[in-house]
């Protein structure tokens, strides 16, 4: 299908990326196997999946770093392969492994990247602020923590103020606190109206951040929608947890709509698709102390789609 046909099907401008039937094989391994999606301008789009799912290959083809075997990509209305200089100015790319200029401070790194794009120093300062590294401006890159280094590498991808930012596993290998700090940075970038396409193998994170996600496995997209829609579509039971002994097992079992009751490791877990009567019963029995309610997550969606547990 041509670009015009795609656009008329989408019926609107405001489309940042169109990917159609993308395929890429390495030897006899089909790394990307017929991937299609579109990303709207300003959207935060996540490509999720376990290691080896084909996320990086897909991203690199869109960025114009790799040639697909077949299929088409339009990036801001242009074909990214072969590489086009004018497109490079409009996209920011953070690769999985970042390399920096040796012995330069944070500020110097950023100003150097900015000057390569012919951008003034003001933008560099602005990006340092955006990623929360202003205080580290005069620190050498090799003295930064893992999380700070990731933020610097994101700032470098943003140094020329691109319209679309590609981030390949920006939170991999970060401890939970650094990961959460980075979420704020990603949200701030999004608030600037940038289109973000990012890959992750952390499903909880994607659920938190993305407008829409594509779940990939074995080179294919298994599902694509806003995270909440995917979870809702699963119609999985809600689990209500209370300390064991808070309420007699039989009393809970007799509540209408209860699928399963299990007692394990000091916790009573009630699975139900209609939590209201369960909660009412617990309230009547004065058993609400220590109550937890857990809904399905993207991990359950993955399990449902693939039949196997997701190991991040
Ligand atoms: N240059 C290459 N040559 C041969 N095989 C490759 C190459 N790059 C990737 N692969 C293989 O293709 C498959 C998809 O890799 P890809 O890096 O796209 O997946 P991914 O979902 O990004 O995984 P990860 O999170 O580990 O990066 C993997 O099995 C990988 O080993």
Automatic annotation (TrEMBL):
Keywords: Antibiotic resistance, ATP-binding, Cell membrane, Membrane, Nucleotide-binding, Translocase, Transport
Compartments reported by the entry: Cell membrane
Recorded topology in the membrane: Peripheral membrane protein
Residue ranges annotated for the ABC transporter domain, each copy included: 17-243
Keyword flag Transport: yes
Family, per entry: Belongs to the ABC transporter superfamily.
Coiled coil: none
GO biological process: response to antibiotic
PANTHER family membership: ABC TRANSPORTER ATP-BINDING PROTEIN (PTHR42711), ABC TRANSPORTER ATP-BINDING PROTEIN NATA (PTHR42711:SF5)
Lineage: Bacteria, Bacillati, Actinomycetota, Actinomycetes, Pseudonocardiales
Protein name: ABC transporter ATP-binding protein
Segment forming the signal sequence: none
